[in-house]
């Protein structure tokens, strides 16, 4: 956990260091924003070189090993908090099991202030984007959160897993990356080649074929820390430019930031190893098997015969969006017979976590 230390009277040296830290953070943000404004005022495919780099004097060095640091970006909203608590519970259970390469864990909190989970989940506080810059699309804070965290935090592991609050570790996760080739999950709805006209606004022809843009998002991805330091500032820049382009914003919608990461990676010449067993997504994936992460982004609706009624509220359902203002209750009802094993496993794992996390029912607001 990132806590506050009792420092007593601040020394002049400490004040100078704090001032320098604040200066570098603001300098980097202003640089990104200026680049964004410059690119959005251009024509054609945008600025000649869309790549933005992390200032080298702000990079951290860590010891080399195959362990990966688990990092997820989050807000302090109750909806995000209860998912983070379940995610962290299963991280702790899987971390030291055979086959796991999990290292330490950080919730990168981009609310600019602490919350009541600081003592429960290791947390690093970063600032959100300046007000209005995300245009109501809060996910744009994710790349900016990673830029700040990578600049300021001491990260021992050589690799980083970018995860999300609605991930549950179903099996011990090894390091699926291979050297400078990160590991990613292929999303069926990320289709750069079908959106070539739009992709070319941000990935010029001279950079290579559109097929060099991997069909991924930023999460889940296991990546070398040094590579993520290179990609993240460009990821911020591309995300902001995309959001500012009406055609792109309309075409990509809620997956805009995912496309931005894929394009930013390609701009840096980074290709991902695609692992279909990295993650499963109920109710479409029917069995957990040897896959590593359950991503419960979709609603699971069934009738009492065990038949999927997707798009229509079922007689039995689990949908994380049913709990926007607070956590789900303990001991959720299990699905009726005939429902796929993946959905049963999801609800069973949520019930185990809520039964064992202290103060689940009472600690539900900021």
TrEMBL record:
InterPro entries: HPAT-like, HPAT/SRGT1-like. GO terms for molecular function: glycosyltransferase activity. Keywords: Glycosyltransferase, Membrane, Transferase, Transmembrane, Transmembrane helix. Residues 68-361 form the Hydroxyproline O-arabinosyltransferase-like domain. It is found in: Membrane. Pfam families: HPAT. One of its GO terms (cellular component) is membrane. It is a single-pass membrane protein. This is Uncharacterized protein LOC105125981. It comes from Populus euphratica. The lineage of its organism: Eukaryota, Viridiplantae, Streptophyta, Embryophyta, Tracheophyta.
